[in-house]
Amino acid sequence: MASITTTCPHCKTNNCQFQMVSEPYRSDNGNYGGIGGFVAQAAFKCGSCSQLIIGVMEVTSAMGFENFKVLSQSDINFTNFRDPGKTIRLLAQFPPIQKGTCPSHCPENVERAFNEAEKALRAGAHSLAAAGFRKSIERAISPFLPEGSKARMLGPKLGELEKSNLLPEAMLEWIRIVKDDGNFAMHDEDRDFETAEEVEPTRLFTHTLLQYLFTLPDELKAAREKIEARK
Fold this sequence. Notes:
This protein has six helices and seven strands, in the order E-E-E-E-E-H-E-E-H-H-H-H-H. The chain is of the alpha+beta class and 231 residues long. It starts with a strand and ends with a helix. Strands 1, 2, 3, 4, 5, 6 and 7 form a seven-stranded antiparallel β-sheet that branches. Helix 3 crosses helix 5 (169-187) and helix 3 runs parallel beside helix 6.
């Protein structure tokens, strides 16, 4: 049977091969795009976790749906298939790939760490998620520290941050908690974080801190520029 390659919305595996496990059916009405093409759907099984998705394929050729059904029985990948007179691409998938929800205007390395932590949380890797949120905070506070502090671990960075009076004491205390949770997640030999509820407070605080450090200042700057432009 045919296959597609995509990110699994269930186990979050990137570039995973999904095997077609149902006969495709046509899901458009009539002559798609005015060129004899059509839209077809089929069920596909993840090669990593065996969960199912529905793949929606756009066929922009005049091969005809019956010929497409025959082609789907062969060992071929439909993700972005091109052949003389035949063009097929993956148009959409259900469930869709869930994107990260990192606050806007964060540095790229901070956004990457936060989104990876959320991906781990959705996948049930709770200890990895706790460690990832700690990494997000460690990267987030680095730009606000003296140059010599940026290569240190989170503990020394927190000490420098306390001297700067940049953050209120409640946020500093939360960073201490996230630091301790991260240490627990990475080093404790007898127990791991077992539920998403254990990690959720850390996720919420990390999200709030990133908004405070990056999103709000940029949005405030944009608001001031709009006010100035109206004068």
